[in-house]
Amino acid sequence: MTLLNPLKPFLAAALCAAAALLAANAQAQSAPASPASAPNGFTDAAASAALAKTASQTAAQPASASVTVTPGGTPAAVQWTLQVMRDGQQIDSFDGTTTLGQARTDTHHKVVTHNVGCKDQPAGSIDLQRTITVSPLQANAGAALLQIEAQETLESPSAPTTTDGCKLPPQPRQIGASHPGLSVPAGQWVNWTIVDKDPTIVYRVRASLAPPSAQP
């Protein structure tokens, strides 16, 4: 008499399921993996290459700098104008085209004679000279930086008198001023006050890169 094992059908089914699972795992391991896609649709390798190319192009771009040389390699020149204002009225003017790193010095003379003494007769001439030195330090299309030195001979706005009421010539005085770097935006006037009062002396300055025809 043969006895049947009631667990045999279940054991057979379990063995079949295990065999199928092993076969599926083996097939998955042997198949090549699909590359992951980057958000822009490129594979990881392509995206990395594109990013590297962009980074190298960005690093290769030169930073903007002030224009200091002409296309021919020589230092650029600056055109400038300096107006001298006395109590709000223009009394003198200087101008020039000066190469960066160089200096230009100009001296203007104004000889004045006053009526003096009790007879109010001309006497005592005074040379009211003014010397300006302009040195362009930097310049680009937007602004110029100028170093300015100034020496002036001024006379007092009031004339002294003697105890008898006779006029004396105004007393001259020497003044000096220096600006290490006056920033002048292109197309604009910049004021630099030299003397605050008695009289008020203000320099109005304008400067820009010289056009190609005026470059050295």
What does this structure look like?
The structure is a single chain. This protein has 216 residues and is an alpha+beta fold. The chain has a domain at 85-214. Helix content is 19%, strand content 42%. It contains two helices and ten strands. The chain has a four-stranded antiparallel sheet with strand order 2-1-10-9, with no helix packed on it. The chain has a four-stranded antiparallel sheet with strand order 3-6-7-8, with no helix packed on it. A two-stranded antiparallel ribbon has the order 4-5. The longest helix is centred in the first third of the chain and has 23 residues, at 8-30. It is elongated, with a radius of gyration of 43 Å. The N and C termini lie far apart (124 Å). The model is unreliable at 1-12, 14-18 and 28-65 (pLDDT under 50). Residues 154-180 are annotated as: Disordered. Keywords: Signal.
Can you describe this structure in just a few lines?
With 216 residues, the protein is α+β, with helices and mostly antiparallel strands. The protein has helices at 8-30, 44-60, and strands at residues 77-86, 89-99, 104-108, 111-116, 121-127, 130-139, 143-155, 172-185, 190-195, 201-209. It starts with 7 loop residues before the first helix and ends in a 7-residue tail after the last strand.
List the main descriptive attributes of the protein structure presented here:
single chain, 216 residues, alpha+beta, 4-stranded antiparallel sheet, 2 helices, 42% strand, elongated, disordered N terminus, signal
